[in-house]
UniProtKB/TrEMBL annotation:
Chain ranges of the Response regulatory domain: 4-119
Listed SMART domains: HTH_ARAC, REC
Protein's recorded name: Two-component system response regulator YesN
Positions carrying 4-aspartylphosphate: D56
Record key words, sorted: Cytoplasm, DNA-binding, Phosphoprotein, Transcription, Transcription regulation, Two-component regulatory system
Organism in which the protein naturally occurs: Breznakia blatticola
Superkingdom of the source species: Bacteria
Cellular localisation: Cytoplasm
GO MF term list: DNA-binding transcription factor activity; sequence-specific DNA binding
BP term (GO), one: phosphorelay signal transduction system
Length: 263
């Protein structure tokens, strides 16, 4: 795809230099407009709907940061240009969600890197926009659903409580057979009849459900999470996770990140 660029700079020499001295075609971009102050830029953003806006901070009429605030509801990625390497400007620009903060004179390599970063953000935002409903379903997914009948069966309820208490350990049906003084065959049949799935299948689903909570907290490594939920082998944890979620743990983390949009 071709990305539409708007150049906003009050110094005409710099503005024209950015427009004509940059190989926009090589960056899959086309300049669709220019503006000499923030007020003109606001109108251009509304009428031309650019994908990327290069904007100077210090401009007459309406400055760059105020322009960003006035157009925060429009879908574009901003790259801020400034003659000031001041922390306060950079801090405010970051708060407004700009992709890059470049000091003038802008070096070609820096501009190319900023445009490349902006394009990646646009692609990510469009993916999220087009797949928001599906991404949200994955983010909020519940791997297990316990039928109401399970809570009415005293023995199965005990088995569920046992799983809740010991899922972090390498438990097997023989452990429950010893705990409740029933045969493994009997417990397996009873569990599947009431819950609708095998004991080991439910146990793995339960572990994956707990791992989703840990992943959303973003505080632990995948190896730690696997160990927390009773699947210490990283490779096997990935296999089990993908079996029930449909995505690998790292893919799920990416989805969590993609559901948070920034300009």
């Amino acid at each position: 795809m071709v990305y539409k660029v708007l150049v906003v700079e009050d110094e005409e020499i710099i503005r024209k230099g950015l427009i004509y001295n940059t190989n926009w075609a090589a960056l899959d971009c086309v300049v669709i407009g220019e503006a000499g102050d923030g007020e003109e830029a606001i109108e251009a953003i509304k009428s031309k709907e650019p994908d990327i806006v290069l904007v100077d901070v210090n401009m007459p009429v309406v400055n760059g940061l105020d322009m960003l605030k006035a157009t925060k509801d429009y879908s574009y990625v901003a790259i801020v240009l400034s003659g000031y390497a001041e922390f306060s400007y950079a801090q405010e620009a970051i708060r407004l969600g700009v992709t890059r903060y470049l000091t003038k004179p802008v070096q070609e390599q820096e501009l190319v890197a900023a445009i490349t970063s902006a394009k990646k953000k646009i692609q990510k935002n469009r993916f999220v926009s087009e797949n928001q409903e599906e991404l949200q379903k994955v983010k909020e997914m519940e791997v297990i659903a316990i039928p109401k009948a399970a809570h009415k069966d005293e023995l199965v309820e005990k088995m569920l409580n046992y799983i809740d208490a010991y899922y972090q350990d390498r438990i097997q049906m023989r452990d429950l057979a010893d705990a409740f003084n029933y045969s493994e065959v009997f417990l397996n049949k009873r569990f599947k009849h009431v819950v609708g799935t095998t004991f080991i299948d439910f146990l793995n689903k339960y572990r994956v459900q707990v791992s989703l909570k840990y992943l959303k907290e973003k505080q632990y490594t995948l190896e730690e999470i696997g160990a927390f939920v009773g699947i210490p082998d990283p490779k096997y944890f990935r296999v089990v996770f993908k079996r029930y979620v449909g995505y690998s743990p790292r893919e799920f983390i990416t989805i969590l990140e993609q559901t948070t949009e920034t300009r």
